[in-house]
Amino acid sequence: MTDIDADLVAAFAGTLADTARTLARAHFRKTTAFERKADESPVTVADKAIEAALREAIAARFPGHAILGEEAGMTGGDDHLWVIDPIDGTKSFITGMPLFGALIAFAEKGVPQVGVIEVPPLGERWVGLPGRATLNGVPARVSGCAVLADARVYTTSPDFFTPEDWARYDALSRQGAMRRFGGDCYQYGLLASGHCDLVVETALQPYDYMALVPVVEGAGGVMTDWQGRPLGLASDGKVVAAASLALHAAALRALNG
Questions:
Q1: CA angle, corner 31, sides to 95 and 94, nearest 5?
Q2: Using a CB cutoff of 8 Å and minimum separation of 24, what contacts does 108-112 make?
Q3: What pLDDT band is residue 43 in, cutting at 50, 70 and 90?
Q4: For a pLDDT cut of 90, what percent of the chain falls above it?
Q5: Strand-strand pairing, 73-75 and 66-69
Q6: FRET partner for 105 with CA separation of 20 to 30 A, picked from 45, 85, 127, 215?
Q7: Cα angle 211, 36, 117; round to 5
Q8: What angle do CA 84, 199, 89 make, to 5 degrees?
Q9: How far apart are the first and last CA of the chain?
Q10: DSSP alpha helices (H): ranges in 126-229?
């Protein structure tokens, strides 16, 4: 962080997460209707209401800051950027699965600095800052798993992979101790708290991953694209999150053959 204190930003992000939690709970398992966006992904009134409320709060507190949200796109052009996904896992939300979350990130010059994973139905919230991460205020730490054969591997769904990328993921994940599917942003919280060791995904947008990076890295993990490059607004949406440098290196070797 440079000219804005990380703790101040994290505290404000917490108030945004409180708002997202209240609104999401008000709609969860009550709102089932949805529309299809241009990319065929679903959107509900809850997505729109949460993003609108968070945008209003950010604009009031930091009127000069830029905002990027899944539903309303980019507004402003400041080096200070808030990135919002009001409901990460809208398909889970629509079908009553409680593993969706609200994602809130603060970035400086495109680099994510503070991230929040808010999981409204479970009352769980991960917060990541430079050098530290917490789950509901308690320090979160990755497992430290360093060997691919011992790794518990997650991804959200095979549906998000191209055939070529699925072949690469399939070969990688079958080398792990076990592999599981589902969870959207929740799996990154599980990684930050040591319950799984490796998450590999593709076809993500900045609002899907910008908030995850500070949480994973603050808990001692590593998160990059499939080539090992830092994640930013221009990344290609392929991500690897690992519980150690050694496991991250092994995953990249497996993915890139």
A1: 20
A2: 108/1, 108/2, 108/4, 108/79, 108/80, 108/81, 109/79, 110/81, 110/232, 110/233, 110/234, 111/230, 111/232, 112/83, 112/210, 112/211, 112/213, 112/214, 112/231, 112/232
A3: confident
A4: 85
A5: antiparallel
A6: 45
A7: 15
A8: 40
A9: 36
A10: 163-173, 186-192, 206-209, 212-218
| Predicted pLDDT of residue 240 | 98
**Phi, psi torsion values for 42, nearest 5 degrees:** -85, 155
How far apart are alpha carbons 96 and 99 in whole angstroms?
9
Tokens of 38: 């241009």
**Alpha helices, H only, the chain:** 6-27, 45-61, 90-94, 163-173, 186-192, 206-209, 212-218, 245-256
d(CA 115, CA 33): 29
Q: Indicate the length of the chain as a whole number.
A: 257
Q: Rounded to two decimals, what is the model's pTM? A: 0.94
